Structures are given as structure tokens and as C-alpha cells.
Amino acid sequence: MGERLTEGRPVTVGVDGRPGGVQALHWAAAEARARDAALRVVHAYQLPIAPAAYPPGDYDVYALDEAAQEVVAGAMAEAAPETGGLPVVEVTAEGNAVQVLLAESGSAALVVVGTRGRGWLARGVLGSCSAGVAARAHCTVVVVRGPGGPPDAPVVVGVDGTDLSDTVLAFAFEHAARHGVGLRAVLCSTSDAEADVDEPARAVAEALAGWREKYPDVRTDRTVVRGRPVDGLVEESAQARLLVVGARGRHALAGTLLGSVSQGVLREASVPVAVVHPAP
């Protein structure tokens, strides 16, 4: 399902001259190679807030674009081992970074962004660009919170039995199959009552059965975690290759763009996090 919708589309990554952007580029290049897809490396820059107030000689649009091209070239140089041999399109665009990447997301297989900090400094920190893109993109967004576990580490996917769970599982199984790793489905419950867990757990088991048939080579297991969903998912994914969550879950308020669980794991996880949006 997801593969057909994104086939032929590039993996798009935003870079900004910071270490988090370079880390995102490393991840995006590896994913583009695994998908046999093109890689789009995008940097957005903005003109002075009130350009009309400045005489033309006070700022140079061409110099700004040249500086933007240098940001992309610098990131590409740091990620040269991963990007070598890939079809790469380097893009510099004038405008707000969130708006530029949202526009890019309309024709991308997925969009990859970094975070402000690295290692323990990144915990609890999520830049406004990463948050804005993850919330409103037209495709799945991967926020690279850290390098992830070893190459054979599993994909961890958060499920809750809602309609979106099937779309989330589709992305998770496709990623696991593409990289030859296992998958662990995690259902988090804040209730101690077995009855409150039984129904969604059954729904998850049924959903997994169908995906196991489609991807028989993907080693699959599931677990129910008691407690706060964000804490459970962060703990279960500590050594994962990738944590996959839906943009909105069972407890998201109607009309919100990004559910509380998605927001929480984007701030607390130590591995790359994929935020999957409902199919259009």
C-alpha cells in the first residue's frame, strides 16, 4: 500500500548547517539507497524581515543564495561516504524552512529532519522546524533524534487499535522488510484493568496477523506496556533502529495536528522517530 504510493518519489532531507542536519542527511542517504530512490537535499534561507526598509545595496540576494549553496555543499561533503553514487538534487529556496519543507513533502516519499542538539543535549529539545514539519507534512516525516541501535536492531512501532494503526503498521513493516530486521509492536495502557487492554490488544493482534502474512520474513513480536505511553515507547525503543508512531493517536484531541504521544516521543526518544500521517 505505502510502497505503491511513494514509488519513484525522492527522499527529501532538510539541512541547516548544524550537526543535527548532517546527521539527518546521513540517515536520509542510507534510506534513499535502500529504496533505490533519489535524494533531495534542501536548505531554506530568508531575506531580511522587512526588505523594503533596506536600500538595495544593504543586502545581496545573490550572496544569500550563494551562502545557502555553501551550507548544502558543506553538509554533502560531511556525508560523502553515504551519498556517493546516489542521484542527488541540491535545492536552495528562499522562504521559511517549515513552509519550504512542507511544500517539498507533497512530492516526497518521506521528509527527514534533524534536531537542535546531539546526544543527551537533544533530550527534551525539539526545534520549531522539526515540530512544524512533523505536524503538518503531506507524507511521513523522520526526525533523527540519534543514530539508532545496531544494524540488526528492530523497528519498534506504537499501536493503539485505531484506524491509523494500519497505516502506521504498513510503514513499519515496509521499513523492517527493506532493511532485513525484525519488528516489535508496542501497545501502551495507563489502566491496570485487564478488560481495558483486552479489546485494543485483540485489535492489534488481528492487525499484525494480516501484516505477518504479507511480510513472512519479518520477525514480529508484540508487547503490552503499562504506564504512560510516551515513557513506554521511549523505553522500548532505546536500542531500536527506528520508532514509528502515528501523527494522531487514541488520545489526541479532535482537530489537533500532532497527538500528545507523538509530541512526547519526538522530544524524549534517543533514536530516529517516524511520524506517519493518515493516507490522503
Could you characterize what this model shows?
It comes from Actinopolymorpha rutila. Keywords: ATP-binding, Nucleotide-binding. The chain is an alpha/beta fold. The protein folds into two domains: 2-143, HUPs (Rossmann fold); 155-271, Rossmann fold, CATH 3.40.50. Helix content is 41%, strand content 19%. It has ten helices and ten strands. The protein has a ten-stranded mixed β-sheet with strand order 3-2-1-4-5-10-9-6-7-8, with helices on both faces. Helix 5 packs parallel to helix 6 and helix 9 (229-236) packs across helix 10 (260-268). The longest helix has 21 residues, at 194-214. The radius of gyration is 19 Å and the shape is elongated. Residues 118-125 and 249-256 have low confidence and may be disordered.
